[in-house]
Amino acid sequence: MKRLKDTVPNALYIHIPFCAQKCRYCDFNSFVSESTFIDKYLTALEKEIAGLKGQYVFNTVYIGGGTPSILNELQLEKLLRSVLNNTMLGSETYEYTVEANPGTMTIDKAQILKGYGVNRISVGVQSFQDRQLKLLGRIHSGDDARKTFDLLRSTGFKNINTDLIFGCSNQSLSDWEKDLKTVIELNPEHVSTYSLTYEEGTPLTRDLDNNVICTLDEDTELEMYKTTIRSLTLHAYHHYEISNFSRDGYQCAHNLIYWQNKDYVGVGAGAYSFVNGVRSANEKNVCRYIEDLHNNKNIKPFHECLGQDRHAAETIIMALRLRQGISNADFCERFGYTIEDQFSEQIDKFRRDGFVTFDNKILKITQEGLYIADTIMSEFV
Length: 381
Ligand code: SF4
What we know:
Layout (H helix, E strand, L loop, with lengths): L10 E6 L18 H16 L6 E2 L1 E6 L7 H14 L1 E2 L5 E6 L6 H9 L4 E7 L3 H7 L5 H14 L4 E7 L6 H14 L3 E6 L7 H7 L8 H17 L3 E4 L2 E3 L6 H7 L5 E3 L4 E4 L2 E4 L4 H9 L7 E4 L2 H12 L6 E2 H8 L3 H14 L3 E2 L4 E4 L1 H4 L2 H6 L3
Parallel strand pairs: 1-3, 1-11, 2-4, 3-5, 5-6, 6-7, 7-8
Antiparallel strand pairs: 8-10, 9-10, 12-13, 13-14, 15-17, 16-17
The protein binds iron/sulfur cluster.
The site of iron/sulfur cluster has 11 residues, from loops.
């Protein structure tokens, strides 16, 4: 077995753990906070970002949350200035994304983002239908989402993603078709569609446990997924990842790093990093994160070294999410053995049933395989 080559991360994730209101389905590391507390967080974050100076050249930067667009204009400038002053950004081809939620974006904020070189906005639309947005506990209406999209276009953003959720308890297939029709009319460069998951401890899951709402039946949810693929591909979106669709040349370069299981650096409360086979996480508690940075203490309470086999298995699992799959040549270059050396049993099993292919030594999930992707991936652990 060969020693893995040292790798240098060229992707940076920055976490903003604040939201205008907690959505009813959300278990992310995000909170409602006073503006003065956000200021303190940004000061701490600035210190962490300053620590990156001179270490890496980032080709992708992704500011996510939470709701980065909740920052006021001054806060936004402070954050973007800190990225600009302390990190080296790659050539002109770099991708710089900021997540924005309808109801929190203004023309002034959009212009500030543009001015600092942000070239991609990911809009948390989730649905265009007010009944569903209400159930999800979103702060905005479908109309707000359309207005945010138009505002971003008028500011000159040419690369916009929209996030959509399907599988809500009060949603019919025709509701979902309407959402898809609306998004196709808006014509973003990228569309991410996720099925609703009921996370432990969220108000929505409590409603489910108390029979206030019920889950959508599996057949309808599967039909929604199939409809998504059919509609978006018919309108020239490439289905390049299980849940993601893009126009030609607009795949999300930052997320591709995750799906290819390559190295990245994460800053901010609870952010993960993955460098040279070591996964680490920052302190998740926002108060402790601020305090520890202020006191120059260690802010990474969690580290794990994956080990070569686990790293390889995770790489296969993530690669199966991508429609392009993973080639033996790439895999071998990274891990020093072939895909069959380690996974021939799983490949044979799923190939027989038509769920994966291994033509020309490229392992890929098939269209049928997509519908049982979780089962397939679990066998590669
Ligand atoms: S806006 Fe996003 S991060 Fe914030 S509470 Fe809602 S789902 Fe969670």
